[in-house]
Amino acid sequence: MAWIVVSISLIVIWVASLCKIFFGATSSSKSTLLDDGKASHKKNVMFVIAHPDDESMFFSPTINYLASNAYNLHILCLSTGNADGMGSIRKDELHQACAVLKVPLQQLKILDHPSFQDGFGQVWSHDLLTKIIEEEVTNHDIHTIITFDNHGVSGHCNHRDVHRGVLKFLQTNSGRNIKAWELVSLNIFRKYCGPVDIWLSILSARKHPSEVIIINEQPRKSFEAMAQHLSQWVWFRKLFVSFSSYTYANTLNRINP
Fold first, then answer.
1. 43-59 pLDDT tens trace
2. Which of 6, 14, 96, 102 is found 20 to 30 A from 225 (Cα to Cα)?
3. Which pTM was predicted?
């Protein structure tokens, strides 16, 4: 009998969470993220990711929110995800996912550099990352960078190197007034509690005013974007996208170099 009560309670919480997303979603401290203190026309934001599909699996709530607020979104993807020899396929899939997410294809850059190859045990040069990030920031007049935190959501070494590259760029360009935000890595319970995590995220933001919570008002679009990555769209990733809290909300924290 007890398990029935627990099951019903979980279903009620899950449904209530989805209702909050679809009918009452609000993102906390949006102005903190969006107000760059400069002219209103200056809205160039760059996501720095490691592999094709990172944008859909982890950052889609923030991408959806910024795209709906007329920001100029750029994505710098530092590898083709060629660990299984499907780099060219995954590049095409990323183009299709960006079309779904309303990121202009001319504002997507995918590198295939010998120093940035996908895979565990691959060490990416932080100095070279810094140089490339600096070139993109300068070329596109970027004022805000969004990337992984030091754990990189899953602990993937490529994700962590991307964070360190961004951090080094900020340290060596401190006079440029570039804002940078990191996607907060969550513990295993929060990571897989789906839309229910929006309540925990909101509570966390109240305790940590520096955090920004972006609730995904279009989770269906996130599923559609991830489905464009057909080479990766296997059963366990379908489960991941369904139960991952990163589909429903992003917690961002300001990087202080």
1. 899 999 999 999 999 99
2. 14
3. 0.89
